[in-house]
């Protein structure tokens, strides 16, 4: 019998929130999940926007392990402000696809050291990206190659989570 929540190492423990007030902040989400270990703290929360740049009422949160996943899922239908929030498990591929095709609340990702790469060769591997950014500290499991969730093919995009905003700024100078 395999692990109930983790299909592969790359899937991690990702949850999706739906029904958030549009004004919700990362700190409010962290408070909502008090007692749940969010992977990489604030950087583990991604509040999405619609294509027009407005908050979508949805967010993705990566938690540390199966126990945290169970505790987070236990918050399903609890209230944040006057709204009840849906909490459910998703695969990392869904999160990556959504972040690629919608967006994240401005200032959230880059301020936490996350950089989006575009135009990568389709055969790029995580090791290639790590080597390119040699000398700059990337958090553990901090490289995500984006795949089309329908056919599993690489899109030529990736997200790299550096240890802080300053390191991300140095990474951008390599362009």
Question: Describe it for me?
Answer:
- This protein has 175 residues and is an alpha+beta fold.
- It has 2 domains: 9-110, 2-Layer Sandwich (Alpha-Beta Plaits); 113-172, 2-Layer Sandwich (Alpha-Beta Plaits).
- Helices cover 25% and strands 29% of the residues.
- The protein contains 6 helices and 9 strands, in the order βαββαβββααβαββα.
- It has helices at residues 26-32, 66-73, 92-101, 108-111, 126-132, 165-172; strands at residues 14-18, 45-49, 55-62, 79-80, 83-84, 86-90, 114-117, 138-147, 154-162.
- The strands form 3 sheets. It has a 4-stranded antiparallel β-sheet. The chain has a 3-stranded antiparallel β-sheet with strand order 7-9-8, with helices on both faces. A two-stranded antiparallel sheet has the order 4-5.
- The N and C termini lie far apart (45 Å).
- The relative contact order is 0.17.
- The model is unreliable at 1-9 (pLDDT under 50).
CATH topology of the largest domain: the name is Alpha-Beta Plaits
Low-confidence stretches: 1-9
Broad CATH class of the largest domain:
Alpha Beta
Number of strands: 9
Order of helices and strands: EHEEHEEEHHEHEEH
Q: Per CATH, which architecture of the largest domain?
A: 2-Layer Sandwich
What is Rg?
16 Å
**Morphology call:** globular
Give the helix tally. 6
Distance between the termini: 45 Å
The CATH H-level homologous superfamily of the largest domain: RRM (RNA recognition motif) domain
Percent helix, as a range, is 25-40%
| Class from helix and strand fractions | alpha+beta
């Amino acid at each position: 019998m395999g692990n109930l929540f983790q299909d592969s190492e790359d899937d991690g423990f990702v949850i999706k929130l739906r029904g958030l007030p549009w004004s919700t902040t990362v700190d409010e989400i962290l408070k909502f999940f008090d007692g749940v270990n969010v992977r990489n703290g604030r950087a583990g929360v991604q509040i999405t926007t619609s294509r027009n740049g407005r908050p979508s009422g949805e967010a993705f949160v990566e938690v540390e392990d199966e126990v945290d996943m169970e505790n987070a899922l236990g918050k399903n239908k609890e209230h944040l402000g006057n709204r009840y929030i849906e909490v459910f498990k998703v695969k990392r591929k869904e999160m990556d696809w959504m972040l690629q095709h919608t967006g994240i609340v401005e200032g959230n990702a880059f301020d936490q050291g996350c950089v989006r790469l575009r135009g990568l060769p389709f055969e790029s591997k995580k090791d290639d990206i790590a080597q390119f950014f040699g000398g700059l500290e990337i958090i553990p499991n901090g490289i995500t190659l984006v795949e089309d969730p329908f056919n599993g093919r690489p899109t030529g995009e990736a997200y790299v989570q550096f240890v802080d905003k300053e390191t991300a700024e140095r990474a951008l100078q390599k362009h």
